[in-house]
Design goal:
The complex is a heterodimer.
Chain A lengths: L1 H16 L2 H34 L5 H11 L4 H12 L14 H25 L4 H8 L4 H11 L1 H16 L3 H7 L9 H10 L3 H29 L10
Helix pairs in contact in A: 1-11, 2-5, 2-8, 3-5, 4-5, 4-9, 5-8, 5-9, 6-7, 8-11, 10-11
Chain B lengths: L1 H26 L5 H5 L5 E8 H5 L2 H13 L1 E8 L1 H9 L5 E4 L2 H9 L7 E12 L13 H11 L3 E3 L5 H12 L9 E3 L4 H11 L2 E5 H7 L6 E4 L6 E8 L10 H12 L1 H9 L2 H4 L5 E2 L3
Parallel strand pairs in B: 1-2, 1-3, 5-6, 5-7
Antiparallel strand pairs in B: 3-9, 4-7, 4-8, 4-9, 4-10
Classes of the chains: A mainly alpha, B alpha/beta.
């Protein structure tokens, strides 16, 4: 038990001291994972919506593939990106291996299917009424689609928080393509691995706590904003 | 309309959070600027090396001096020797610092590396529970000790990751003409620190380099059971990646790094590393 107490103490101390290395590592974690999340949202939300709303032959198969990719093993994603970016690989000339960009690349591969798949799910779960009502009120196709997305927003926010949780906590892919380079590509999860490897368990726990705190704050932000958008809606309640 | 605004707000807030981290990410580079003020910006050198040089803390001592002397910034990728050599063979790094003589010679013979230099050696230890369950203390040599462990089926944790340490261990088994297998032979598939931890949990024997052992021994209970045998020496070599094969590598920087490590200054620093803290030498410099 002692080790947990030590870990908590050390975590508070690390944050309190504003240890420059820990701050750099934390900011890099945020930067990489948020960039991956934004990119995944940009690709994933429209793709998911299209998959749900359009008539596409073989839609079930596409959905099945997306759902499978939601469980893509991080190390495999990392290996694929590694082989693409290695000097002799197809994208080797850009020299992206062992850079934060490579880490973003790998994380998008992990997060985009989650955003896409859960968005599709959220949109498909809506009743036909949503479209019919909008159409009756004279909405154009575009406006109707916007109304549908608005109705599905809780599901979409859930997709984003899930995707963020996956990438911020992931280590296999970023370790492989980032290389765990100090001051350059080391993120929080890699530090936890490194400290564990060196037997510094309390430091590892401390960094883990920082990561969880970070996740908590980001999710708090997302949920707070979601709540604001719900103010004029009636969410389901037991009365 | 109100709702739409709020949704836009959410997107904006996420973007803002993202931008803040971007800006913060850029800001972190500012402290480095003053150092670069009087001289041209440091060039980057990618070094693939073993976890032992990083986990022991040797690189933390050597690299800042090298960077000061040559105006290079070294990016360290610490993996097993096998993976480090693969990174060199793919042209993804400029120079490798590893310990597995046979694999190093093959790396050079295959044309991936040039001008290999001896840098230093440390030695391996056989560690295990203090009560020495297999009774290998006092064995004539390493091979006899390994034979005893196998015949008694005493728990033994192997790296099993094709690293330099792993290759060393496999070499000893080969010499003992034994193919280790069975419940007693545990392959961790992880780095030295993780393997040490696992051996400690399982009260098992393991082969470990002295540097990692000394750096971490206070955290675990295993003790040195055997040391000092000639076959337990562990030589490190530095090899720049062949620029004719990979025009992208910084051969000049790699050579500077190899020269610096084998220079009088580099060798002296290697020899002194850890003496103050552990009261013994961790690495013995042996550049020719």
């Amino acid at each position: 038990m002692n080790i947990f107490v030590e870990g908590i103490k050390e975590g508070v101390y690390l944050i309190w001291q504003m240890d420059p290395e820990i701050i750099q590592i934390t900011l890099l974690s945020l930067q990489v994972s948020l960039t991956a999340l934004v990119l995944s949202a940009v690709f994933g939300i429209p793709a998911g919506a299209a998959l749900a709303l359009k008539r596409i032959p073989g839609k079930r198969i596409y959905l099945n593939i997306i759902y499978t990719l939601m469980g893509l093993p991080p190390v495999l994603a990392g290996l694929l990106v590694y082989l693409l970016l290695t000097y002799r690989g197809p994208l080797g000339q850009f020299e992206l291996l062992f850079t934060p960009s490579a880490m973003v690349f790998a994380q998008v591969l992990l997060a985009a299917p989650i955003v896409c798949g859960l968005t599709a799910r959220a949109v498909m779960a809506l009743p036909q009424d949503v479209y019919d009502t909008a159409a009756t009120l004279g909405a154009s196709r575009r406006q109707a689609a916007a109304a549908i997305m608005r109705e599905a927003r809780i599901g979409i926010v859930a997709a984003l928080t899930t995707a963020f949780g996956r990438v911020i906590a992931e280590v296999g892919a970023v370790m492989l393509v980032g290389g765990n380079i100090r001051w350059s590509t080391r993120v929080l999860t890699m530090s936890i691995v490194l400290e564990t490897r060196m037997g510094n368990f309390s430091t590892a726990i401390a960094i883990g706590l920082i990561l969880l705190t970070l996740s908590f704050i980001i999710n708090l932000l997302i949920l707070k904003l979601e709540k604001r958008t719900l103010r004029y809606d009636n969410t389901i309640q037991i009365t | 309309m109100k709702m739409k605004n709020n949704r836009i707000l959410l997107v904006l807030a996420l973007l803002a959070a993202f931008l803040v981290t971007m800006v913060a990410g850029c800001a972190k580079e500012e402290p480095k600027a003053p150092e670069q003020g009087q001289q041209p910006p440091a060039k980057e050198l990618k070094l693939a090396t073993t976890t032992s040089t990083q986990d022991s803390g040797l690189l933390d001592v050597l690299l800042p001096e090298f960077e000061k002397d040559t105006n290079y910034k070294v990016k360290v990728i610490a993996v097993g020797t096998g993976q480090a050599i693969e990174m060199g063979a793919a042209g993804d790094v400029d120079v490798i610092l590893v310990h597995s003589r046979a694999a190093e010679d093959k790396f050079v013979a295959d044309g991936f590396g040039v001008d290999r230099r001896d840098v230093m050696y440390n030695d391996f230890l056989i560690i295990g529970p203090a009560e020495d369950p297999a009774g290998i203390k006092g064995s004539a040599d390493t091979i006899e000790a390994f034979l005893t462990i196998a015949s008694k089926q005493a728990a033994f944790v192997s790296r099993g990751d094709n690293s330099g340490t792993d290759k060393k261990e496999k070499g000893i088994w080969t010499k003992a003409e034994i193919t280790p297998a069975g419940a007693w032979y545990i392959e961790s598939g992880q780095g030295m620190g993780d393997t040490f931890r696992m051996a400690d949990e399982k009260k098992a024997y393991t082969l470990i380099d002295r540097a990692t052992y000394l750096a971490q021994k206070d955290k675990y209970k295993l003790e040195i059971i055997m040391e000092g045998d000639k076959s337990l020496l562990n030589p490190y070599g530095v090899i720049p990646v062949n620029p004719e094969k990979f025009p992208n590598v910084d051969y000049e920087g790699a050579t500077k790094f190899a020269q610096w490590l084998t220079s009088e200054k580099g060798q002296k620093m290697i020899g002194e590393f850890g003496v103050e803290k552990y009261k013994q030498q961790l690495f013995v410099p042996d550049a020719k």
